[in-house]
Amino acid sequence: MTRVAPIGGTAVQDHVALAEIELCGELIIAASAARERLSLESIDEVLRVAEERRSAGERRGAGAGR
To answer: In terms of Cα–Cα distance, which of 50, 54, 32 is closest to 40?
Structure first.
């Protein structure tokens, strides 16, 4: 589904797309600063994969007690 801003200047923000753009920018910055290709571990660190896995695990754990 494509979202289009209604006429009248009110902007519709797609928060998922904005988060993806921010992560892509951070990855581009890290890659341009690196002397060699980024390792998979480095990419995961830039994209905060471990943090997201921890958060997802905590959310699952919190829901298990209900």
So the answer is: 50
